[in-house]
Amino acid sequence: MSSGGPGSHPLVETRRLVLPGPGRTAHDTARLCARLARLYEGGATAVECDVGAVTAPDLAAVEVLARLRLTARGRGRFTVTGAGPVLRALLDLVGLVELLGESEEGEPAGGVQEGVEPDDPAV
């Protein structure tokens, strides 16, 4: 999937990777990581990983996402879409909630800077 809708940046090439449902194996993880690497090598600058098919998330699903994140490191943006409440909780538990592209409670969203008034004291 390529971006290009209203308000999108013309240089951002977003692709989609789908995480299969139950029964993932180590072979599936390696295959998904290789597919992700090929997407970046093919010009993608951002990849959205759709996890909507993961209906019974477990730590194996979290491991796949962690390995995909490591594969994406330094190549482009990697976010997860379609996560249900259980997977969200697991990602939060292991410190990978940022994959959802949402800010943690009390934290500004990524890339957002807080405003500073000229009269604010230095911290």
Notes on the protein architecture:
Strands 1-2-3 form a 3-stranded parallel β-sheet, covered by helices on one side. It is globular. It has 123 residues and is of the alpha/beta class. It has helices spanning 26-41, 59-72, 85-93, and strands spanning 14-18, 46-50, 77-81. The chain is built from 3 helices and 3 strands; from the N terminus they run βαβαβα.
Lay out the secondary structure.
Layout (H helix, E strand, L loop, with lengths): L13 E5 L7 H16 L4 E5 L8 H14 L4 E5 L3 H9 L30
Parallel strand pairs: 1-2, 2-3
Q: Give the beta-strand count.
A: 3
Termini separation comes to 44 Å
Please count the helical segments. 3
Largest sheet: 3 strands, parallel
Provide keyphrases for this structure.
alpha/beta; 3 helices
Short summary:
This protein has about 120 residues and is of the alpha/beta class. About 30% of the residues lie in helices and about 10% in strands.
